[in-house]
Structure formats: structure tokens, C-alpha cells
Amino acid sequence: MDLGLTGRKAIVCASSKGLGRACALALAREGAAVVVNGRGAAAVATAAREIAAATGAQVVPVVADVTTPEGRRALLALCPEPDILVTNAGGPPPGDFRDWDREVWMRALDANMLTPIELIRATVDGMIARGFGRIVNITSAAVKSPSDILGLSNGARAGLTGFVAGLARKTVRHNVTINNLLPGPFDTDRLRANLRFAAEQSGESVDAVVEARRRANPAGRFGTADEFGHACAFLCSAHAGYITGQNLLLDGGAFPGTL
Question: What is the DSSP string of the chain?
């Protein structure tokens, strides 16, 4: 299927590795020019070089922390009129809410709620004026199935979800959609860090916790980054203009509900 993305311009935040990189790669494969981003210069340069080599697409590296105003300005300076925006930022650490003071909460809100909103605010009106826009926020399965140790993520990402639910109904008539991708257990550094924390709390070995989590998933495995990237590319495609305000859960069937 031709996704109709040839010549489109995309910003993919936190895309030097993991799920963000998979999204950037999938969009580049579909002919989009992509801005890749991360805080580590070496990782960003490697990602840009490898994605460009694999796809032949134009890939621009931007070393910046998107959770800061300066980082967001750096992204938008190189791609001021994106057709596609994929927001993403590293999730806050797991822990016990009793240990989190206001400063910790504000860091989580800045990274996982306010930063996406600021990027949307900076780009959505241009998308409306041009008659095409696709915004995808990478959030978390914890929005639908909260984990007690991920309270910072639960709260911040749920706030973003509520914001998107209202705005997405106003932009869709202009062919600008806003949706959220909710990753469950994907084989990423983030998952490994959370499972190490769980192992420390339980006294089990990391290998035992990883294997138990894998077996417990109905799919019998963790998701792959490529699977996630392809889902993102479809939501960004010309064929997804009737999908907006949705929370697409990718978790191998782990969530037991019907809705």
C-alpha cells in the first residue's frame, strides 16, 4: 500500500533509538523527509546516517532536548512547517509516589504532557492552513492499564490524552488528525529498566522477571520496534484522515478489556 507520504516533512522526537527511531525509519521508507532528534550527538548522527542509507530519504539530525524551549526551537528552526509530528520523550522513572515531591512531578509533566502540547501548539495551525497534518503522540499502555510503580507516567500521559481528546475533534475537518500510540511491552531500553526495577523490588533475578513477563503476554513475546513504526506510519498516512482522537493500544493482547 502506498501511504501517500512521498515528499511530506516529518519531525520525530526522541528518535535516535527505540520506538522513536522505528517511527522515523518507517516514515522515511514511505518517502517522507524526516528530522531525527535526541540528546546524544553520536546516537543522533548514527540514526540519521543509517536511516538515510536504508531508505534514500532526506534525514536531518538535530541534537536537542525536546523537553526544553531551546530544544523545541532547534527542531522547528530546521523544519518550521512539518506535515507530520511524532511527539515522544523518555518516560519518568518508576517508583513509589510517596517519594515524589512537586519538582519530580513537574519534570514528568513537562516531559510527557506539556512538551507535546507545546509542539502541537507550534505546528497545528500551519497544518490546518495547508490542509494536511498528522500528529501522533507516543504515550503508554499505562494510560489504559495503570501500573502502581509508573504513577508519574500514568498521570502525565493521561493528562495529555485528555487534552488531545478535545482538540482532535476540532482539527479533523481540516484533514489534521491527532492520535496517540500506546506501547505495551516492547523490547526497548525502557522496558528493560522497568523490569530491572521490578526484579529489585521482588528479589527475583532480572532474567526470571523478563521471562515471566514475556510468557504472561497473550502473544508470548514482546513487540518489535518495526511493528510499532509501521503502525505509526499508517496513522500518519493519507489513508488515515478519518481516524482522530484515538488511543491505539499495541500490547499483544495484554489489556483484558473489550474497549
Answer: ---S-TT-EEEESS-SSHHHHHHHHHHHHTT-EEEEEES-HHHHHHHHHHHHHHH---EEEEE--TTSHHHHHHHHHH-SS-SEEEE--PPPPP--GGG--HHHHHHHHIIIIIHHHHHHHHHHHHHHHHT-EEEEEE--GGGTS--GGGHHHHHHHHHHHHHHHHHHHHHGGGTEEEEEEEE-SBSSHHHHHHHHHHHHHHT--HHHHHHHHHHHSTTSS-B-HHHHHHHHHHHTSGGGTT--S-EEEESTT------
Q: Closest by alpha carbon to 216, among 183, 248, 189, 184?
A: 184
- Residue 96 pLDDT greater than 90, yes or no: no
Rounded average pLDDT over 212-233: 94
Residue 81 pLDDT level (bands cut at 50, 70, 90): very high
Alpha-carbon distance 231 to 226, whole Å? 9
Q: Render pLDDT for 179-202 as a digit per residue (tens, 0 to 9).
A: 999 999 998 877 787 788 888 888
User: pLDDT class for 34, splitting at 50, 70, 90?
Assistant: very high
